[in-house]
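Notes from hallway chat w/ T.B., transcribed later so I don't forget. T.B. wanted the structure written out for a chain they're using in a teaching module, and asked if we could keep both sequence and structure tokens in one place. Agreed to drop them here.
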Amino acid sequence: ETAGNAGHIVNTGGIGKTEAAENTGDTGNSGNAGAAFENAESLDTGNAGSLRRHKPPLYGCAFNGAASVAVHINDALVIAHAPKACAFYTWQNISSPGRRNLFQRGILVPSALDPNFACTDITHAEAVFGGLERLREKVQEALDAGWKSVIILSSCVSGIIGDDIRQLENMSTSSQQVIAVHTDGDIAGDYMEGIRMCVRRLAEALIDPSVKPSGRRINLLHETGINVNKERNFRILEDMLKALDISVHCRFPGDALTEQVRTMAAAPLNVLAVEDEDGQKMRQWLTEEYGLTFMEEPLPVGVPATARWLRKIAAFFDHGDTGRAEILIRKEEEKYRREIDRLKPILAGKSIFITTINANIDWLLSVLTDLGMDIRKIAVMNYLRTEIHVSDTPEKYPIDPEFPWQNLLECIQREDPDLVLSNYVTQIPGCHAVFDAIPMSPVTGFDAGLAAARRWAELMEKQREGGWRRDRELYEKYYS
């Protein structure tokens, strides 16, 4: 009923073939665990002058990627059927972002700092004679300890010797579930394929499609694992939703309980954290398999996008009434205008040179425009040879979609900008410009662009001559 009152803002019937799928000839589920989230194909459309689309680079192993997802089911024990060296490498990969969040940002994420992670410690003996008995003992210990779920991941060694971890799923009880994910190290694919496989397998094993939606709550889906702003963004989202009397029911994949994943369908609305190709395929699959209703837009970044997003989500839950959202939007827009007025005397008229990956940066461009800054060039790094989507209004900006990167240094020196923004920051010797980073995963909400603008103002106001300490020389040599 709720969806019916604002159905124009959501996708209730599946997204059908995504544009990415149409471009790559993807026909849907091919039957394996990772089929719903498979990589884009590399192909040439055959048209003269058309772009040749490339696959993203492969890295890591599926075992490692699956573990990065599984550990976020907080009442589950993840058992790595692997040698201890593999388990140690994976544990380090999971806990490193947790330590960084704690030490640099003061954000405590227990599932990352001390993940629920065990290992069968496969030795030469198991590699020769099989390790299922050792695995069975570990699973039984986990069930006896009261874990709600036990998630088994196979490594290269257990995959090569042919240990069938799926047979351990018959150890499930009425209140505890054993779930096997056959990643087989890198045999099944790379790190990202492991994430896809684990997400799909957990969804198949846990989500109860008979649960009916109710209440004022959403699910947050497809939070990227390697994202230093993930927890910060979740807290910003919670604060915005609280103003609308809406809560988050489940994060998937993300910190959640087994029961929250099982009852995922109880949330009337689902929101993607990131709308990349994997996110689109995940949305399509969950819509078709479980009938979930999705917000069309992912988590918003910047003032215009956040205002639109809040109005739509308020209209969905309040039968078209956006009154609660308007109160919050007015408050945040007033704060934004005050901060723009404060920063404008410092930044207005400053020239900008931007190098960026092929990703939408309207949140950044709108702040630069409001500050009255001079955007000289937007040079796009289109490594995957996909259609350019740096802005929804590309005609307003000097975008170079085919920038010759061998000429980057020469171009920056010729343009002589005051500020260079890039996804990969480096100071160019002899260049007076301030260099700063465009985050790969920006902060969600109203404050994304302002946070960057405050930093630019601070950098530009710094006195870099420094007298006997040679501060300018050191700044240009080491600042990044």
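Follow-up for T.B.: The chain is about 40% helix and 15% strand. Might be a good example for the class.
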